[in-house]
Amino acid sequence: MNLPIKGIIPPIVTPLLENGDLDSQGLHNIIEHMLKGGVHGLFLLGTTGEGPSLEHELRKQLVSEACGFVNKRVPVLVCITDTSCRESLELARHAKQVGADILVVAPPYYLPISQGEMQHYLEHLAPQLPLPFLLYNMPSCTKLQLSLETIKKGKELGAIGIKDSSGDWSYLHSLVKEFSGNPSFSIITGTESFLPELIAKGGHGAVAGGANFFPRLFVALYEACVAKDTGTILQLLKKVKLIGTSIYNVGKQESKYIKGTKCVLSVLGLCHDQVAPPLSRFTASERKQIKSHLANFSFDDQHSPTT
């Protein structure tokens, strides 16, 4: 495996049918759409993928089918976080068996835990993992913001990087200052608009939800960042921010980003917009707003939006 892991790694949605089963055709459509857009990897069962809301067998089915569709064209990352350590290890073993490349580990959710408890958890979990692993900081969903000490412990135990979805630039910057000198440790943001500054400071890429539907836009932004092409960066960043103020801003629920992403993919004809309970899909009125926002973008034959 080439380290550090870098580039645009979309947190792929989990497409579902009306009855809650996996939408296999939709999954194939989305994967091919993103690979055609030039993404550098795929991230399964994250927040955008509604991982914690899915039954364990469906998670395994998703990982199996996704790895089969990708067929080693790009690395596949699988989030194994669960309230049960045994379930995390079971999914990790399954991911290894079906061809995944990297595991992703966030703090177990629901019960509040301390930094010390998280470090002990990693000491227990990491030696049993069958694949390299990436740490995942998602304090809004896990109740714990990983400290530098905890991340250092994870690195000692074999972590090959961290994905930060805190939305806190000062925190992300502290990670860059602490770890960017290590050529095999990735620093990846989950906040799309942070990508240019992160790359400029020595970071490595983004797990960008918008790359589910506009993969080429985010790949082009990453390439411009690496090339230090300021003019192109500013042009493309404007489009990324437009996604944030339009598509991600439909609806009033905290879940609007997840539902909006699936709705866009549905409007584009790639998959159904069914979401897993307890969430519910957008209303007809909200879907109409999504269609209206999409009309502000046009697409060239590389699926790159221009305005």
Q: What does this protein look like?
A:
This protein is α/β, with parallel strands linked by helices and 307 residues long. The chain contains twelve helices and ten strands. The protein has helices at residues 24-36, 56-70, 85-98, 115-125, 139-142, 148-156, 169-179, 195-201, 215-227, 230-245, 256-267, 284-294; strands spanning 7-8, 42-44, 76-79, 102-105, 133-137, 159-164, 186-189, 205-206, 298-299, 305-306. Strand 4 (102-105), helix 4 and strand 5 form a beta-alpha-beta unit. Helix 1 crosses helix 2 and helix 9 packs antiparallel against helix 10. The longest helix has 16 residues, at 230-245. It is globular.
A few lines on this structure:
44% of the residues lie in helices and 11% in strands.
Mean of the pLDDT scores?
94
The total of helices stands at 12
Give the beta-strand count: 10
Structural class: alpha/beta
What is the distance, rounded to the nearest whole angstrom, between the alpha carbons of the first and last residues? Answer: 37 Å
Secondary-structure element string? EHEHEHEHEHHEHEHEHHHHEE
Radius of gyration: 18 Å
The largest beta-sheet arranges its strands as: 1-8-7-6-5-4-3-2
State the helical fraction: 40-55%
Strand content: 5-15%
Main beta sheet strand tally, sense and closure: 8 strands, parallel
Shape estimate: globular
Unreliable stretches: none
